[in-house]
Design brief:
This protein is α/β, with parallel strands linked by helices. It is built from twelve helices and seven strands. Strand 3, helix 6 and strand 4 form a beta-alpha-beta unit. Helix 7 runs parallel beside helix 9.
Length: 295
Protein backbone atom coordinates (compact mmCIF):
# COMPACT_ATOMS: atom_id res chain seq x y z
CA UNK A 1 0.00 0.00 0.00
CA UNK A 2 1.28 3.45 -0.90
CA UNK A 3 0.55 6.66 0.97
CA UNK A 4 -2.19 8.84 -0.43
CA UNK A 5 0.39 11.47 -1.21
CA UNK A 6 2.11 9.30 -3.83
CA UNK A 7 -0.41 10.61 -6.35
CA UNK A 8 -2.52 13.69 -6.92
CA UNK A 9 -5.99 12.72 -5.80
CA UNK A 10 -7.00 16.29 -5.09
CA UNK A 11 -6.17 17.42 -8.60
CA UNK A 12 -7.86 14.40 -10.13
CA UNK A 13 -10.93 15.18 -8.04
CA UNK A 14 -10.87 18.72 -9.41
CA UNK A 15 -10.74 17.36 -12.94
CA UNK A 16 -13.75 15.20 -12.25
CA UNK A 17 -15.65 18.12 -10.77
CA UNK A 18 -15.01 20.16 -13.88
CA UNK A 19 -16.99 17.71 -16.00
CA UNK A 20 -19.70 17.10 -13.45
CA UNK A 21 -18.48 13.70 -12.31
CA UNK A 22 -16.95 14.45 -8.92
CA UNK A 23 -18.41 12.82 -5.85
CA UNK A 24 -19.42 15.42 -3.30
CA UNK A 25 -18.92 15.06 0.41
CA UNK A 26 -21.79 17.42 1.31
CA UNK A 27 -23.53 16.53 4.52
CA UNK A 28 -20.45 14.85 5.97
CA UNK A 29 -19.13 17.15 8.70
CA UNK A 30 -15.40 17.40 9.17
CA UNK A 31 -14.17 15.53 12.24
CA UNK A 32 -13.71 17.65 15.33
CA UNK A 33 -10.03 18.38 16.13
CA UNK A 34 -8.66 16.69 19.22
CA UNK A 35 -7.62 20.05 20.63
CA UNK A 36 -6.97 23.60 19.49
CA UNK A 37 -3.25 22.92 19.95
CA UNK A 38 -1.67 19.54 20.53
CA UNK A 39 1.72 17.87 20.23
CA UNK A 40 0.32 15.32 17.76
CA UNK A 41 -2.20 16.99 15.41
CA UNK A 42 -1.66 14.68 12.45
CA UNK A 43 -3.79 11.57 11.86
CA UNK A 44 -2.17 8.45 10.42
CA UNK A 45 -1.43 8.75 6.68
CA UNK A 46 -4.08 7.57 4.28
CA UNK A 47 -3.14 4.85 1.83
CA UNK A 48 -3.86 4.21 -1.82
CA UNK A 49 -4.83 0.64 -2.75
CA UNK A 50 -2.60 -0.82 -5.47
CA UNK A 51 -5.54 -0.95 -7.89
CA UNK A 52 -6.16 2.79 -7.56
CA UNK A 53 -2.46 3.55 -7.91
CA UNK A 54 -2.35 1.45 -11.09
CA UNK A 55 -5.42 3.21 -12.51
CA UNK A 56 -4.03 6.68 -11.88
CA UNK A 57 -0.74 5.68 -13.47
CA UNK A 58 -2.55 4.31 -16.50
CA UNK A 59 -4.63 7.45 -17.01
CA UNK A 60 -2.25 10.26 -16.12
CA UNK A 61 1.30 8.93 -16.42
CA UNK A 62 1.37 6.57 -19.38
CA UNK A 63 1.07 8.65 -22.58
CA UNK A 64 -2.49 8.52 -23.93
CA UNK A 65 -5.43 10.70 -24.92
CA UNK A 66 -7.95 10.95 -22.11
CA UNK A 67 -11.66 10.63 -22.85
CA UNK A 68 -14.83 11.25 -20.87
CA UNK A 69 -15.08 7.49 -20.43
CA UNK A 70 -11.76 7.55 -18.58
CA UNK A 71 -13.02 10.16 -16.13
CA UNK A 72 -16.27 8.28 -15.67
CA UNK A 73 -14.36 5.10 -14.95
CA UNK A 74 -12.34 6.89 -12.30
CA UNK A 75 -15.29 8.69 -10.75
CA UNK A 76 -17.17 5.42 -10.29
CA UNK A 77 -14.28 3.62 -8.62
CA UNK A 78 -15.47 3.28 -4.98
CA UNK A 79 -11.95 3.13 -3.54
CA UNK A 80 -10.95 6.29 -5.36
CA UNK A 81 -14.10 8.11 -4.23
CA UNK A 82 -13.53 7.09 -0.61
CA UNK A 83 -9.93 8.28 -0.66
CA UNK A 84 -10.84 11.55 -2.34
CA UNK A 85 -13.51 12.33 0.25
CA UNK A 86 -11.17 11.49 3.13
CA UNK A 87 -8.45 13.67 1.63
CA UNK A 88 -10.77 16.66 1.26
CA UNK A 89 -11.89 16.36 4.87
CA UNK A 90 -8.30 16.35 6.08
CA UNK A 91 -7.34 19.29 3.88
CA UNK A 92 -10.04 21.33 5.57
CA UNK A 93 -8.12 21.12 8.85
CA UNK A 94 -4.61 21.37 7.42
CA UNK A 95 -4.63 24.24 4.90
CA UNK A 96 -0.87 24.33 4.37
CA UNK A 97 -0.38 20.55 4.32
CA UNK A 98 1.90 20.50 7.34
CA UNK A 99 0.84 16.93 8.12
CA UNK A 100 1.42 15.76 4.58
CA UNK A 101 5.06 14.76 4.97
CA UNK A 102 5.50 15.06 8.72
CA UNK A 103 5.76 11.32 9.32
CA UNK A 104 8.26 10.92 6.47
CA UNK A 105 10.31 13.85 7.74
CA UNK A 106 10.44 12.40 11.23
CA UNK A 107 11.55 9.09 9.76
CA UNK A 108 14.44 10.84 8.05
CA UNK A 109 15.47 12.54 11.28
CA UNK A 110 15.58 9.20 13.09
CA UNK A 111 18.09 7.85 10.55
CA UNK A 112 20.27 10.96 10.53
CA UNK A 113 20.07 10.89 6.72
CA UNK A 114 20.78 14.23 5.05
CA UNK A 115 19.14 14.69 1.63
CA UNK A 116 21.08 16.38 -1.13
CA UNK A 117 18.01 17.84 -2.84
CA UNK A 118 14.40 18.58 -1.94
CA UNK A 119 11.83 19.11 -4.71
CA UNK A 120 9.11 21.45 -3.42
CA UNK A 121 5.97 22.03 -5.43
CA UNK A 122 2.41 21.10 -6.30
CA UNK A 123 0.92 18.12 -8.19
CA UNK A 124 3.40 18.55 -11.03
CA UNK A 125 6.15 17.78 -8.53
CA UNK A 126 4.12 15.15 -6.66
CA UNK A 127 3.24 13.28 -9.85
CA UNK A 128 6.91 13.23 -10.82
CA UNK A 129 7.41 10.52 -8.19
CA UNK A 130 4.55 8.56 -9.70
CA UNK A 131 6.09 8.74 -13.18
CA UNK A 132 9.76 8.31 -12.22
CA UNK A 133 10.04 6.92 -8.68
CA UNK A 134 13.69 5.95 -9.05
CA UNK A 135 14.61 9.59 -9.56
CA UNK A 136 13.61 10.26 -5.96
CA UNK A 137 16.18 8.00 -4.38
CA UNK A 138 19.71 8.39 -3.07
CA UNK A 139 19.17 11.69 -1.34
CA UNK A 140 16.56 13.30 -3.62
CA UNK A 141 13.25 13.93 -1.86
CA UNK A 142 9.84 14.76 -3.32
CA UNK A 143 7.81 17.24 -1.28
CA UNK A 144 5.07 18.08 -3.77
CA UNK A 145 1.46 18.47 -2.67
CA UNK A 146 -1.37 18.45 -5.16
CA UNK A 147 -3.32 21.64 -5.65
CA UNK A 148 -0.99 23.84 -3.63
CA UNK A 149 -0.21 27.51 -4.18
CA UNK A 150 2.92 29.42 -3.15
CA UNK A 151 1.47 30.75 0.16
CA UNK A 152 0.90 27.16 1.28
CA UNK A 153 4.41 26.16 0.23
CA UNK A 154 5.86 29.11 2.11
CA UNK A 155 4.10 28.06 5.32
CA UNK A 156 5.54 24.55 5.13
CA UNK A 157 8.96 25.61 3.82
CA UNK A 158 10.62 25.38 7.22
CA UNK A 159 9.31 21.89 7.94
CA UNK A 160 9.60 20.35 4.47
CA UNK A 161 12.86 22.03 3.37
CA UNK A 162 14.90 23.86 6.01
CA UNK A 163 14.56 21.22 8.72
CA UNK A 164 15.88 18.57 6.31
CA UNK A 165 19.15 20.49 5.67
CA UNK A 166 19.49 19.75 1.95
CA UNK A 167 22.23 21.19 -0.23
CA UNK A 168 19.68 22.24 -2.89
CA UNK A 169 15.97 23.04 -3.07
CA UNK A 170 14.14 22.85 -6.40
CA UNK A 171 11.04 25.07 -6.35
CA UNK A 172 8.42 24.46 -9.03
CA UNK A 173 5.30 26.51 -8.34
CA UNK A 174 2.76 28.88 -9.82
CA UNK A 175 0.30 26.77 -11.80
CA UNK A 176 -2.26 26.84 -9.00
CA UNK A 177 -1.61 30.51 -8.17
CA UNK A 178 -2.60 31.34 -11.76
CA UNK A 179 -5.64 29.08 -11.40
CA UNK A 180 -6.63 30.74 -8.11
CA UNK A 181 -6.83 27.51 -6.13
CA UNK A 182 -6.64 29.34 -2.78
CA UNK A 183 -8.45 32.45 -3.96
CA UNK A 184 -7.59 35.50 -6.06
CA UNK A 185 -4.09 36.93 -5.70
CA UNK A 186 -1.79 39.44 -7.36
CA UNK A 187 1.28 38.57 -9.42
CA UNK A 188 3.18 40.48 -6.73
CA UNK A 189 1.90 38.02 -4.12
CA UNK A 190 3.35 35.12 -6.11
CA UNK A 191 6.63 36.99 -6.47
CA UNK A 192 6.74 37.83 -2.75
CA UNK A 193 6.23 34.18 -1.82
CA UNK A 194 8.99 33.02 -4.16
CA UNK A 195 11.36 35.70 -2.85
CA UNK A 196 10.62 34.71 0.74
CA UNK A 197 11.37 31.04 0.06
CA UNK A 198 14.60 31.93 -1.74
CA UNK A 199 15.71 34.22 1.08
CA UNK A 200 14.97 31.56 3.69
CA UNK A 201 16.93 28.96 1.74
CA UNK A 202 19.93 31.22 1.22
CA UNK A 203 19.95 32.17 4.92
CA UNK A 204 20.40 28.47 5.65
CA UNK A 205 23.08 27.87 3.02
CA UNK A 206 20.75 26.03 0.62
CA UNK A 207 21.20 26.60 -3.11
CA UNK A 208 17.98 27.33 -5.05
CA UNK A 209 16.84 26.05 -8.42
CA UNK A 210 13.74 27.80 -9.74
CA UNK A 211 11.70 25.97 -12.35
CA UNK A 212 9.52 27.82 -14.82
CA UNK A 213 5.78 27.29 -14.62
CA UNK A 214 4.96 24.51 -17.10
CA UNK A 215 2.69 25.40 -20.02
CA UNK A 216 -1.05 25.00 -20.12
CA UNK A 217 -3.72 26.66 -22.20
CA UNK A 218 -6.66 25.51 -20.08
CA UNK A 219 -7.30 24.44 -16.52
CA UNK A 220 -9.83 21.61 -16.50
CA UNK A 221 -11.12 22.81 -13.13
CA UNK A 222 -11.20 26.51 -14.21
CA UNK A 223 -12.06 26.35 -17.92
CA UNK A 224 -13.08 30.02 -18.07
CA UNK A 225 -9.47 31.19 -17.55
CA UNK A 226 -6.85 31.84 -20.21
CA UNK A 227 -3.61 31.16 -18.33
CA UNK A 228 -1.12 31.52 -21.20
CA UNK A 229 -0.31 35.25 -20.93
CA UNK A 230 0.02 35.17 -17.15
CA UNK A 231 2.25 32.09 -17.18
CA UNK A 232 4.55 33.72 -19.71
CA UNK A 233 4.68 36.90 -17.62
CA UNK A 234 5.52 35.08 -14.41
CA UNK A 235 8.12 32.91 -16.11
CA UNK A 236 9.92 36.00 -17.37
CA UNK A 237 9.94 37.35 -13.84
CA UNK A 238 11.30 34.04 -12.51
CA UNK A 239 14.07 34.05 -15.11
CA UNK A 240 15.07 37.63 -14.31
CA UNK A 241 14.88 37.12 -10.57
CA UNK A 242 17.04 34.00 -10.72
CA UNK A 243 19.65 35.78 -12.84
CA UNK A 244 19.98 38.59 -10.29
CA UNK A 245 19.87 36.49 -7.14
CA UNK A 246 22.35 33.65 -7.72
CA UNK A 247 19.66 31.03 -8.38
CA UNK A 248 19.62 28.50 -11.18
CA UNK A 249 16.65 28.69 -13.54
CA UNK A 250 15.27 25.79 -15.59
CA UNK A 251 13.05 26.57 -18.56
CA UNK A 252 10.61 23.66 -18.45
CA UNK A 253 8.07 25.81 -20.29
CA UNK A 254 9.97 25.86 -23.58
CA UNK A 255 10.68 22.14 -23.43
CA UNK A 256 7.03 21.20 -22.88
CA UNK A 257 5.04 23.87 -24.74
CA UNK A 258 3.17 23.68 -28.02
CA UNK A 259 2.95 26.64 -30.41
CA UNK A 260 0.05 28.35 -28.61
CA UNK A 261 1.42 27.98 -25.10
CA UNK A 262 -0.41 24.72 -24.46
CA UNK A 263 1.16 21.60 -22.97
CA UNK A 264 2.32 19.48 -25.91
CA UNK A 265 -0.26 16.67 -26.20
CA UNK A 266 2.49 14.08 -26.53
CA UNK A 267 4.00 15.20 -23.22
CA UNK A 268 0.85 15.41 -21.07
CA UNK A 269 -2.49 13.64 -21.05
CA UNK A 270 -4.73 16.24 -19.42
CA UNK A 271 -3.24 19.50 -20.70
CA UNK A 272 -1.77 20.47 -17.33
CA UNK A 273 0.32 17.61 -15.90
CA UNK A 274 3.26 16.04 -17.74
CA UNK A 275 3.09 12.34 -18.50
CA UNK A 276 6.04 9.96 -18.41
CA UNK A 277 7.54 11.43 -21.58
CA UNK A 278 7.17 14.95 -20.21
CA UNK A 279 8.93 14.03 -17.01
CA UNK A 280 11.68 12.35 -18.99
CA UNK A 281 12.47 15.69 -20.62
CA UNK A 282 12.23 17.50 -17.29
CA UNK A 283 14.63 15.07 -15.64
CA UNK A 284 17.20 15.59 -18.38
CA UNK A 285 17.09 19.35 -17.79
CA UNK A 286 17.30 19.27 -14.01
CA UNK A 287 20.03 16.64 -13.79
CA UNK A 288 22.41 19.02 -15.52
CA UNK A 289 21.82 21.55 -12.73
CA UNK A 290 22.04 18.97 -9.95
CA UNK A 291 25.29 17.35 -11.09
CA UNK A 292 27.63 19.66 -9.12
CA UNK A 293 25.72 18.99 -5.89
CA UNK A 294 25.78 15.21 -6.17
CA UNK A 295 29.56 14.85 -5.95
Amino acid sequence: MRTLYACSLLVVAALLASIGQAQESAGKPAPEPVAAMTDEPCPPPLVVPPAVHALLTELFVEPRKLTSADFERLSKDPQFVELGNASRLRAGQDWAGLCHYRSANLGLASTAAVPRTVFLGDSITENWALADPHFFEHGTLNRGISGQTTPQMLVRFREDVLALHPRVVHILAGTNDVAGNTGPSRPQDFENNIMSMVELARAHGIHVILGSIPPTARFNWRPQLNPVPRIRELNQWLRDYAAHNDCDFIDYYSALAGPAGELNAELGNDGVHPNREGYRLMRALVEKQLAPYRR
